[in-house]
Write a structure and sequence with these properties.
The complex is a heterodimer. Chain A is built from 11 helices and 10 strands. Chain A is of the alpha+beta class. Chain A has 3 domains: about 110 residues, Acyl-CoA dehydrogenase/oxidase, N-terminal domain (Butyryl-Coa Dehydrogenase, subunit A, domain 1); about 100 residues, Butyryl-CoA Dehydrogenase, subunit A, domain 2 (Beta Barrel), CATH 2.40.110.10; about 150 residues, Butyryl-CoA Dehydrogenase, subunit A, domain 3 (Up-down Bundle). In chain A, helix 1 packs antiparallel against helix 3 and helix 7 packs parallel to helix 9. The longest helix of chain A has about 35 residues. Chain B is of the alpha+beta class. Chain B folds into 3 domains: about 90 residues, Butyryl-Coa Dehydrogenase, subunit A, domain 1 (Orthogonal Bundle), CATH 1.10.540.10; about 110 residues, Butyryl-CoA Dehydrogenase, subunit A, domain 2 (Beta Barrel); about 140 residues, Up-down Bundle (Butyryl-CoA Dehydrogenase, subunit A, domain 3), CATH 1.20.140. Helices cover about 45% and strands about 15% of the residues of chain B. Chain B contains 11 helices and 10 strands. In chain B, helix 4 crosses helix 6, helix 7 runs antiparallel to helix 8 and helix 9 runs antiparallel to helix 11. Chain B is globular, with a radius of gyration of 22 Å. The two termini of chain B are about 40 Å apart. Classes of the chains: A alpha+beta, B alpha+beta. Chains A and B meet through helix 7, strand 10, helix 8, helix 9 and helix 11 of A and helix 8, helix 9 and helix 11 of B.
Chain lengths: ~375, ~400
């Protein structure tokens, strides 16, 4: 029995932690929000140099060939610093999908570049007025010769300006079910797309609406089997959700640290406010949630890496718990800080906003509850809708 | 990360399973778990069970071999708890003796004390209880008022103890009494090994809100103890208490494993209860509540394993044990609250009139309120976590 990260994993966490702190912790996110991306770019290069982008890339494609658990320390640290960017979408989602379903040439084209830190992915899933459900994937994609013609609009696309490629679920077949959806990779360097920025509570993640005025791309850009993109998406989502749980754990940890430190130095009525049980116990509640969230996230990533039988419920529940804990802890952190917590100057709001950003990201809380229930055998999986 | 058990550990598990199969009362494993209602018969039943455990070498597995234990590893203790929970084994009547008094005497007791008590603890010949809490000393044990005054070659003890589990069955008490008053409240407390069978000791039952009688009040009127009954030094009982707590290295494992099992029972209940001709589990609101409880009971188990890993690496338990206790006791309360809600108004039916599970849900629901109080309230656990793990300043007055 050993339920802990390995010494190597903890050591690597130390490197990433030290690097991000040296770079100013939340300073990168703050500058990014103001539109200054210089320190963000430095950090992306720096993290690649540390090896973060190559951890889970197979060795034959220039990576370290490690697993989901090895990403955990990096993910937690990124979450701690509310770092902008597409690490989750690239290293968890795109790498999983490419590794499992990509053709040899797709792997050759993307995996080494991801490992080097020069290629990033975003996910363009939602369409205006629609949900994450299959019925709402209506972007038209018609096969013509050896190319595909794509046209329509995707909305709430995260950090499209930072992405080298987008992965899009599109409708290649008829109807509105899971069947007939395919996943395509759209390389942005050689595509002309109209991009309309959308204001987001959490401006450390940029959102945009993109419109494809019908364009033509090669059919080689389809990833996984034609019309079966939904299943490919589900595999990618498992990896994303396990990773997202760890990112959120990092966020909760930062919030608990902030609250505890402030409660030790802020004095009212002649004593540090952390002496009052109304404050102390609130912070303890946050800490307890943090440790439960971390245990669930560790196990989720273990289950993913080892393809455990209970991996779906383990991953989904880890995500659900972390999201709830993060939103609650981030909100309580403001209350503990009092007036200063309400200001832009203090980091409290960065965490509230990021927690909210993740709450329903890539699937609603509601639909994940049902997905967990189905995995536990309490309702029929075919009746569970993603939305 | 590795969730497997070694071959040696699995062999240990198998040995215990085999023993349990042939030694539990007849029909026990098939669900016929008849525990006598009558107090005397109940006491007899529990003592017999402990005797059986002793004869099989399963009463005190963590004790060193020279005292009749198996020198079990921490992992073997965990497996032991898992297996005992799995078969819903009867409680260990001499829990206090085996887990607290015995190990403490081995560590700091005098040779005469070891000789006089340890073997009888193991065999169940002498059952022990704890004498800590008092009417005005609950969460704050330093406030105890029971006094021990020297009178020639003896000590005269006066005062009142409360919440004494199995006090009515006990032969001896691990008693905290005040022997002096100094500036620091935790100084001046002494631990006595008190004979319960003497005129100065009177035990009165406390009937709990679940109708049962586990707890007692113990009245001490000129009860007598001798120098030979003191553990450690006079006035230094607080140190003895700290040493005693360090023996609880497996923490609240048994409760964590029990909660896991109770959750499985809850799933069965959610399929059994019908609502409008449909099992309750078909209701999405119920499912959401169930997923939530599943997540948190898994979380409590996994968190326990993470803390256990720390204990295995450091060789001793840490303040994280407070977190396990807080989580599992609060969650148990929620689980049984949910179980009654799920039964609708029928949930209020109790004992022989209960509709589901022979009153298991109602009895445990009522019992669960004690879990966030006994062994340190949730509020005390939160203070420990806040101060010892997060480094927050101590409350005034402590």
């Amino acid at each position: 029995m050993d339920f802990s990260l390995s010494e190597e994993q903890e050591m690597f966490r130390g490197y990433v932690n030290k690097y991000l702190n040296n770079m100013g912790h939340t300073k990168v996110a703050r500058e990014f929000i103001k539109g200054e991306t210089e320190s963000y770019e430095t950090i992306v290069a720096g993290l690649a140099e540390l090896g973060c982008t190559s951890i889970n890339i197979p060795e034959e494609y220039g990576g370290m060939g490690l697993g989901a658990l090895d990403l955990v320390p990096v993910l937690e640290e990124l979450g701690r610093s509310v770092l902008p960017g597409l690490y989750l979408e690239t290293n968890s989602f795109a790498v999983t999908v490419l590794e499992r379903f990509g053709s040899e040439s797709q792997k050759q084209k993307y995996l080494p570049a991801i490992a080097e830190g020069t290629h990033t992915f975003s996910i363009a899933w939602l369409e205006p007025g629609g949900s994450y459900g299959p019925a709402d994937i209506q972007m038209m994609a018609s096969l013509e010769g050896d190319s595909i013609r794509l046209g329509g609009t995707k909305t709430l696309v995260p950090d499209a300006e930072l992405a080298s490629s987008l992965i899009l679920p599109v409708r290649t077949g008829r109807g509105s079910g899971e069947e007939g959806i395919s996943l395509v990779i759209l390389d942005l360097a050689d595509t002309d797309i109209a991009l309309q920025r959308q204001r987001n509570i959490d401006d450390s993640r940029h959102l945009a609406e993109i419109t494809l005025d019908p364009i033509r791309i090669s059919q080689e850009q389809i990833i996984g089997p034609l019309h079966k993109g939904w299943d490919v998406l589900q595999e990618g989502l498992l990896a994303v959700n396990a990773a997202l749980a760890s990112i959120m754990v990092g966020g909760v940890e930062a919030v608990v640290d902030m609250a505890a430190e402030y409660a030790k130095i802020r004095e009212q009525f002649g004593q540090p406010i952390g002496r009052f049980q109304a404050i102390k116990h609130k912070i303890v509640d946050m800490k307890v949630d943090l440790e439960i969230a971390r245990s669930l996230a560790y196990y989720a990533n273990w289950a993913l890496e080892n393809e455990a039988e209970d991996r779906v419920q383990a991953i989904v529940c880890a995500r659900l718990f972390a999201a709830e804990a993060y939103n609650k802890a981030a909100a309580d952190n403001i209350q503990i800080h009092g007036g200063i917590g309400f200001t832009e100057e203090i980091d409290c709001h960065l965490y509230v906003k990021r927690a909210r950003f993740y709450e329903n990201y890539l699937g609603s809380t509601q639909s994940y509850y049902e997905k967990a229930a189905a995995a536990l055998g309490w309702c029929e999986p075919e009746k569970v809708k993603q939305f | 990360m590795d969730f497997s058990f070694t071959k040696k550990e699995e062999a240990f598990r198998q040995e215990l399973r085999t023993w349990l199969e042939s030694n539990l009362p007849d029909g026990w494993l098939e669900g016929k778990r008849d525990i006598p209602e009558d107090e005397k018969e109940y006491s007899e039943f529990l003592r017999n069970w402990q005797k059986k455990l002793y004869e099989g070498g399963w009463a005190a597995i963590a004790w060193p071999e020279k005292y009749g234990g198996r020198a079990a590893t921490l992992m073997e203790e965990i497996i032991y708890q898992q297996e005992m929970v799995r078969v819903k084994a009867p409680p260990l009547v001499n829990y206090v003796g085996i887990h607290m008094v015995g190990p403490t005497l081995m560590q700091i007791g005098m040779e005469e004390q070891k000789e006089a008590y340890i073997e009888k603890i193991l065999t169940g010949e002498e059952v022990w209880c704890q004498g800590y809490s008092e009417p005005n000393a609950g969460s704050d044990l330093t406030a105890i008022q029971t006094s021990a005054v020297r009178d020639g070659d003896r000590w005269k003890i006066n005062g009142q103890k409360v919440w004494t589990s199995f006090g009515h069955l006990a032969d001896r008490c691990f008693l905290l009494a005040r022997t002096s008053r100094g500036e620091k409240k935790h100084k001046g407390i002494t631990v006595f090994l008190l004979d319960m069978n003497q005129p100065g000791v009177e035990t009165r039952p406390i009937i709990q809100m679940d109708g049962k009688h586990d707890f007692n009040e113990v009245y001490l009127e000129d009860a007598v103890a001798y120098d030979a009954d003191i553990v450690g030094e006079v006035d230094e009982g607080w140190r003895v208490m700290i040493a005693l707590l360090m023996h609880e290295r497996s923490g609240i494992g048994a409760q964590v494993f029990t909660l896991e099992q109770q959750f499985e029972d809850l799933v069965v209940l959610a399929k059994e209860v019908q609502e409008d001709g449909q099992p309750l589990i078909k209701n999405p609101f119920t499912r959401k509540a169930m997923v939530d409880l599943y997540t948190r009971s898994r979380g409590s188990l996994l968190n326990y394993y993470r803390n256990l890993t720390k204990t295995l690496k450091n060789g001793q338990p840490s303040a994280e044990g407070s977190m396990d206790k807080l989580i599992v006791s609060e969650l148990t309360k929620e689980l049984f609250s949910q179980s009654l809600s799920m039964q609708g108004h029928k949930g209020v039916l109790w004992k022989e009139d209960a509709v589901f599970g022979d009153s298991y849900w109602q009895d445990n629901y009522l019992y669960s309120f004690g879990m966030t109080i006994g062994g340190g309230t949730s509020e005390v656990q939160k203070n420990t976590i806040g101060e010892r793990i997060l480094g927050l300043p101590k409350d005034l007055g402590r």
